[in-house]
Write a structure and sequence with these properties.
The complex is a heterodimer. Chain A is mainly alpha-helical. Chain A has one domain. Chain A is built from 11 helices and 4 strands, in the order ααααβββααααβααα. In chain A, the strands form 2 sheets. In chain A, strands 1-4 form a two-stranded antiparallel sheet. Chain B is α/β, with parallel strands linked by helices. Chain B folds into 2 domains: 217 residues, Response regulator (Rossmann fold); 128 residues, 3-Layer(aba) Sandwich (Rossmann fold). Chain B has 12 helices and 15 strands. In chain B, the strands form 3 sheets. A 7-stranded mixed beta sheet of chain B has the order 7-6-8-9-10-14-15, with helices on both faces. Chain B has a 5-stranded parallel beta sheet with strand order 2-1-3-4-5, sandwiched between helices. In chain B, strands 11-12-13 form a 3-stranded antiparallel beta sheet, covered by helices on one side. The N and C termini of chain B lie far apart (72 Å). The relative contact order of chain B is 0.13. The chains are: A mainly alpha, B alpha/beta. Chains A and B meet through helix 1, helix 8, helix 10 and helix 11 of A and strand 7, helix 7, helix 8 and helix 9 of B.
């Protein structure tokens, strides 16, 4: 029982990172109907932005809540800038083109960023700076709850609520939902479609930036290829929850995280990725719209 | 037009002559390794050892009056890249012998290529038994996995006096699986019990599931036959979960980065290695002194020492040949006996493996404290 509780904590903590990245996929899909494969590389670059900004500001050895906030803010800003330029130079010129062209461009951008990062940062793994200390906070039924896990859950839940507020309770969110529903009608109604799309990219990539810092804090090791697998998993999570749906991405990520941890423990690590992609095939076969099905889909 | 043709011919013949003369006065030796990538310190350390060995030999006049020229190729720690660079070294650069690799999985890819082309290959530190079984042109100067697994099993049951062990292996990795299997059988033979045997995959960063399972089974030691990057993260996560078992490992742990990633969490763990920097053997003392002078006061790890030994053994074999041809180098390598190396006295046996003893060291920040030696 004690282990099961610990497994659940581990799974939720992993799953909340999947959710953060899945949100980026889902939002862009919701508004542009395209899968932004470069998203996992925005996440990877986020880890390096955080790494170098901590170094430049000489904050790598002063773990505190303020340090975390400063680095979070810088990384979100840098990731947004990166995503904005990708959108402007790679996707916007193709907006009137067939969807397939944009998809292939996205894969191209993803590979480009991976290899550029290898040239600039080097292919060897870097050790992420300590931004907060890992302390024992309290125990639940003999299971220690540490500040890392609480920070990860806390930061991701806050980020997700902020996103929810943005989409459903602001003018900008209203514009996003309108564009996602019908770009043509939205522009007739005086909504600046290009700017709304740009904001969607900003929101999605900020979440990826947060995700990358949380991964850095938790696992210490960052490298230019770190985005590939986690990006694919997050994509599966987004499809599982119903691509285009915000709640779906969150639930999908958590389900995937918990089930992966359980498979590794009670089955074998060999089946873990098979499970993740098995879920993808299963969903595509039987419920292509995902858990949060078509009728209740809430596009961003 | 005609002049252009003539010029072309002239340039061609000049390059031909130049490349011919160049080949006359140097002996080309190829090295492939992971100078970048996940286990970059392996390739970099080995390269430093090899370069130092060849420079010493060249300073003394080289081999039969010819200087050794080392051509190093980076495979980025990737399997697919390895085949590419090894082919390039053999067919394009035309090296007479190859040095590499550290990771067994990549030596297993390069081995058959070297064998097919009749180029002798000396692996400094690939410990998987299959590596030298790829053919009679493949040699190594380190001990093999069964021995390393045996050393750690013996150390656990006799020196640490423990009865319950767990294993965390990396699936699909020749080195990790090899060590884990031998450790498991040997430890049971010595009266111990394996309470859990779990695995993880390449590129994994989350090990908490496996570690939580270990925590419940309460093993006294956890054997993690893997490479330093993963081990550092595993140690950190183990301590985050309050897993109190002692961690054990193999020579894949040997890197300055082990402590950088693992921090305090890795201290107090033990691993088997090829040599110890605390040795008082004059050969070792001299090697460490020269290495520190050359490389900015850096302490050589086991892989640098093995790279050095591999290069020296290859050079000695070359010296004994008549014409430094690949086939003769092979024959002479096979005859290596009682070579006094930094990593011990090396004799190549009929299976082209080195027979020598291993040491067990304990991690203490950047230091490796010598604990015991285990003879074959």
């Amino acid at each position: 029982m004690e282990e099961l509780l610990q497994h659940l904590i581990n799974g939720l903590s992993l799953g909340s990172i999947y959710s953060l990245i899945a949100l980026g996929y889902t939002m862009v899909y919701g508004i542009l109907q395209m899968i932004n494969f470069a998203h996992s590389e925005v996440y990877m670059m986020g880890a390096f932005f955080a790494y170098y900004s901590a170094k430049l500001l000489k904050l790598e050895n002063s773990p505190s809540f303020t340090t975390l906030l400063i680095i979070l803010f810088i990384t979100m800003a840098m990731c947004s800038l990166l995503a904005l330029s990708i959108e402007k130079f790679a996707y916007r010129p193709l907006r009137k083109q067939p969807k397939l062209n944009v998809l292939i461009t996205a894969i191209g951008v993803s590979l480009f960023l991976q290899y550029v990062a290898q040239i600039i940062f080097g292919a060897d793994p870097k050790v992420f700076p300590t931004l907060i200390n890992d302390q024992l906070l309290f125990e639940v039924a003999g299971v220690p709850v540490k500040s890392f896990d609480v920070t990860i859950l806390g930061v991701s839940v806050t980020a997700m609520f902020a996103l929810h507020f943005l989409v459903y309770h602001t003018k900008l969110g209203q514009a996003m939902r309108a564009v996602s529903h019908s770009p043509a009608v939205a522009s007739i109604l005086g909504i600046n479609v290009s700017r709304t799309i740009a904001f969607t990219f900003v929101a999605g990539s900020s979440l990826a930036g947060i995700g990358s810092i949380l991964v850095g804090i938790k696992y210490q090791k960052i490298e230019p290829m770190m985005g590939t697998m986690i990006g694919l998993k997050a994509f599966v999570a987004a499809v599982l929850g119903g691509i285009g749906s915000i709640a779906g991405a969150v639930v999908g990520g958590l389900v995937l995280g918990v089930s992966e941890v359980l498979v590794v423990v009670y089955g074998s690590s060999q089946y873990r990725d098979a499970l993740a992609f098995g879920i993808l095939i299963f969903i595509l076969l039987f419920k292509p719209a995902g858990i949060f099905g078509k009728n209740t889909i809430e596009k961003v | 037009m005609r002049i252009l043709k003539f010029l072309n011919l002239l340039i061609l013949s000049i390059t031909f002559v130049v490349s011919c003369t160049k080949k006359e006065d140097v002996i080309l030796v190829g090295e492939y390794g992971s100078l970048t990538g996940d286990d970059a310190t392996f390739g970099i350390s080995t390269n430093k050892g090899i370069k130092m060995a060849f420079d010493e030999i060249n300073a003394k006049g080289g081999i039969k009056g010819k200087k050794i020229k080392l051509i190093t190729e980076d495979n980025q720690g990737k399997n697919e890249e390895t085949a590419k660079v090894v082919n390039r070294l053999i067919t394009q650069d035309k090296v007479v012998a190859l040095l590499g690799e550290v990771a067994s999985a990549r030596s297993l890819i390069a081995g058959p290529i070297a064998q097919k082309n009749g180029i002798p290959m000396v692996s400094p530190s690939s410990t998987n038994p299959d590596v030298t079984e790829k053919g009679d042109f493949i040699f190594r100067v380190c001990f093999i996995d069964p021995f390393q697994g045996f050393v750690m099993a013996k150390f656990a049951s006799q020196n640490l006096n423990v009865k319950k062990a767990a294993i965390l292996r990396k699936t699909g990795d020749a080195y990790s699986e090899g060590l884990a299997n031998v450790f498991s059988t040997e430890f049971k033979k010595m009266g111990g019990e394996i309470v859990a045997d779990l695995s993880y995959q390449n590129k994994d960063i989350d090990f908490k599931g496996q570690l939580t399972e270990f925590k419940a089974k309460k093993p006294e030691v956890i054997f993690i036959p893997s490479y330093y990057g993963d081990v550092g993260m595993i140690a950190q996560q183990a301590r985050q979960l309050d897993v109190k078992s002692t961690l054990l490992g193999g020579d894949g742990w040997d890197s300055p980065k082990l402590h950088e990633i693992g921090k305090e969490a890795i201290n107090g763990s033990y691993f088997s290695n090829h040599y110890t920097t605390e040795s008082t053997d004059p050969v070792v003392v001299e090697f460490i002194k020269k290495f520190k002078e050359r490389y900015n006061n850096e302490t050589p790890d086991g892989l640098a020492a093995l790279g050095y030994d591999a290069a020296k053994i290859l050079a000695e074999a070359m010296e004994r040949t008549k014409d430094v041809s690949s086939i003769q180098i092979r024959d002479e390598l096979a005859k290596t006996k009682d070579f006094v190396g930094v990593t011990g006295k090396i004799t190549i046996n009929e299976k082209r493996n080195a027979v020598k003893s291993a040491v067990v060291v304990q991690v203490e920040n950047e230091k490796r404290k010598y604990v015991t030696s285990v003879a074959p």
